[in-house]
Amino acid sequence: MDLDTVRTFVAAADAGQFQEAAAELAVTQQAVSKRIAALERKLGVRLFTRTPRGAELTIDGQAFLPHARELLRVAERAVASVRTGTRALRVDIIASRGAASGLMRGFHRAHPEIELDVVMLFDIETAVAAIRSGTIDASFRAVGVPGRPLPEDIESVRVLDEPLQLLTGPAHALAGARSVTLAQLAGHRIWMPGIVPGTEWAAYYDDLVAAFGLTIEATGPNFGSDALLDTIADTPALATFMGGHTRLVWPADHGLRRIPVTGPMPVYPHSLLWHRDNPHPALATLRAHLATTAAGRDTDGIWAPPWAIPH
């Protein structure tokens, strides 16, 4: 249905005169008459009755009017959903409890006037494809994995090095430690069912295992963080890694321990990815916010895979 004819119909219905509708739409009265006639032919009914005072809606016109208004509202929403500067900034944060979620919450507190649409995609290939297609505006990912270079039209900037922590139950052999070294973790079973082969976070943990001789098990289904916390709390032989900025809540009787890892401190590298031609003004605001809030990067005493270390 031609939206110009629908818009003309609504203007004429509100004005009660074709002449006033023409003035509002900046067209001639003849154009208004032609559009109304075309709409009536399309619908197969009369929408107006001419009177000495102008034009009155017929019963069919009265029935069509609320639907015509809704058609125009839907059209406006459709345009706004893709118009830069009016639609929400769409950002991929991977997980709702992770560090990227915390970064975006901080951004929202600093800029509540910016509308956000937060999504959670699976891996970096999916995120990059979404950025290139315009489905999302930005994504938080670890970049630099060998054999997986970013396309030339995708920009990235390192925004956060997140320290890893060891999470144990109260009966674990390391539960009472104030900190543990990577060397001390050799021989301990670290259970991480969320690791999926081929993902960027799998590449990170593969390199961590290779560098320090750790034992990381990814066996069993991933039932989510709550099930993981239950298992760690009840199983003295198991521990897991958690990002230091990951928000966790567990029952008080779980007695879980979050223990810093040192010697060196492993950090997970988070970068913001976006398309270099993306003109969304809120994207520039997000980048500026992250540039001012990201902590300075001290490479002394930390570990990250060689591919994650900026040159």
Automatic annotation (TrEMBL):
Output the superkingdom of the source species.
Bacteria
Note whether Transcription occurs among the keywords: yes
Which InterPro entries has this protein been placed in?
Answer: LysR_HTH_N, LysR_subst-bd, WH-like_DNA-bd_sf, WH_DNA-bd_sf
Gene3D superfamilies linked: 3.40.190.290, Winged helix-like DNA-binding domain superfamily/Winged helix DNA-binding domain
Coiled-coil regions listed:
none
Q: Which UniProt keywords apply?
A: DNA-binding, Transcription, Transcription regulation
Q: Which GO terms describe its cellular component?
A: protein-DNA complex
Signal peptide coordinates: none
Gene Ontology molecular function? DNA binding; DNA-binding transcription factor activity
Q: Which family does it belong to?
A: Belongs to the LysR transcriptional regulatory family.
What name does UniProt use for this protein?
A: LysR family transcriptional regulator
